[in-house]
Amino acid sequence: MAVTEELYATDAYRRVFEGAVVAVDRAQGRVALDRTAFYPGGGGQPHDTGTLAWDGGRAAVVKAKKEGGVVWHWLNLPGEALPDERTGAYGELDWERRHALMRTHTALHVLCGVIWADFGVAVTGGNMEPGSGRLDFELDAMSAELGARVERRINEEINRARDVLVDFVDRGEADRDPALIRTKANLIPPSINPLRVIDIVGLDKQADGGTHVASTAEVGRVAVTKTESKGKANKRIRIALEDVPPSP
Q1: Chain segment 36-52, per-residue pLDDT in tens
Q2: Quick check: 66 and 47 in contact, CB under 8 A?
Q3: 73 SS3 class
Q4: Does one domain contain both 149 and 165?
Q5: Is residue 246, in this structure, part of any structural domain at all?
Q6: What is the pLDDT of residue 150?
Q7: What is the edge-to-edge ordering of all strands in the sheet holding 132-137?
Q8: What is the per-residue DSSP string for 161-198?
């Protein structure tokens, strides 16, 4: 099976696309496409949702996941109702949800850049949902005062309207740059080459496969909602976009 063309990797703002079904798994209620704008999840960012339509059918995409080089799309239909192979399809993202995730993901990179610049420590974990997320850091101590300082610094950087660029870097070059992969352990397989890099110009540059906004100004104001100690040298900072309601 041919690999799926990952439209989200080069154009995070693409909301609709056309493709073709290349495989059908009726037992699991899913189809694989030759190209897709649905982000399949990874790196703490959840998968996209939306709709997929074809001649004679339409269904909600409730899950997307990449297996090998193929992106599968789970549809809310019984297996016998799925489209056949080689059927043309039209996909549309739930854009409100995707855009909230893009803004949240970029906000977390701003947080990462601030902590790296001010303390020089690595990320040990993270997760997000539309409008909120958290990162863990190798900090020795955590306090409400530090949280307030970090909140101020995040919003200062957001207000600088820094460009957010996508690049693809040769793996050999990337491996020679110790600041490029800012997680505690490099979990990116050596076989991935070139490496996709997100560059918040002048603040944060790191390997990342997710979707982002084009400027920090698009993030909007961010609040540090909680600071926690998760053990020795492992401190958690939670953030939220102030204009996105919490998930029910």
Answers
A1: 999 999 989 999 999 99
A2: no
A3: strand
A4: yes
A5: no
A6: 97
A7: 123-129, 132-137, 235-241, 222-229
A8: T-BEEEEEE-HHHHHT-TTT--BSS--S-TT--SEEEE
| Pair (72, 43) in one structural domain | yes
Which residues constitute the domain of residue 144? 98-241
Q: Which CATH number characterizes residue 81's domain? A: 2.40.30.130
My answer on whether 81 and 111 are in the same domain is no
CA atoms of 106 and 103, how far apart (whole Å): 5
DSSP-derived secondary structure letter, 202: T
CATH classification of the domain holding 153: 3.30.980.10
Cross-strand bridge partners of residue 222: 241
* Tokens linked to 120: 């020089």
Torsion sign across C-alpha atoms 128, 17, 195, 71:
positive
Global pTM reads 0.93
Q: Report how many domains make up the chain.
A: 2
Query: Residue 247 has what pLDDT?
Result: 53
Element (H, E) at 157: helix 144-159
DSSP E strand boundaries for the chain: 5-6, 16-25, 30-33, 35-36, 50-54, 57-67, 70-75, 88-93, 123-129, 132-137, 164-169, 195-200, 204-207, 222-229, 235-241
127 with 86, same domain: the answer is no
Q: How far apart are CA 24 and CA 72, in angstroms?
A: 9
One-letter amino acid at 140 equals: D
- 188 touches 195 (CB < 8 A): yes
